[in-house]
Amino acid sequence: MAETNTIRARPVKGPPIIQSEVFAMIIFVFADVMFFAGFISAYALVGARAPVGWWPPPGDPALPVAAAGGATVALLLSGAAVFYAGWAARSSLANAVRPLGVALALAVGFLGYQVFEFVRLLGVGFTLQSSAHGGFFYTMVGAHGLHAMSAVAVLAWAMRLVAAGTLSPGAFGAVRLYWYFVVLLWPAIYLTVYL
User: How many structural domains does the chain have?
Assistant: First the structure.
């Protein structure tokens, strides 16, 4: 009897459910959420264990709630601009350049305010070592600031590639996801530390 060789066709793979860049960013963001959740939980526990009227400690300066609230609005608007950039890119990648520029300008304004606030608070003696409140403030706000600085650099890089028409959809999705994380994390820190 003759042997017949049959060739089996490989199943055709469709497009991935999620781009690999976006999936990697989801994992990174999840790890970072845990990092900041630990800080926020520790802050809440220390504050809850302090005697009534002793948290934040009486000698610490009042934090600039209204000014930081204005910076919060600027950061949230930058998130909206990045969202709009993603929507605008659906018809043409070039349409995302202007909203990304707006997002960058608002983000740089937010970072500028943060630097100004740190300098002012350090000038009145509120430091990392001045109290547990100061330690939490500089650690949490500083860690967020480092994330915001790196996200601004990534947004600038993405805007340059968007303008050149060479940014892949997966990379653009990952950049937007990272920026949304930075933007949405800040209100949690603001509500925890400032209010």
Answer: 1
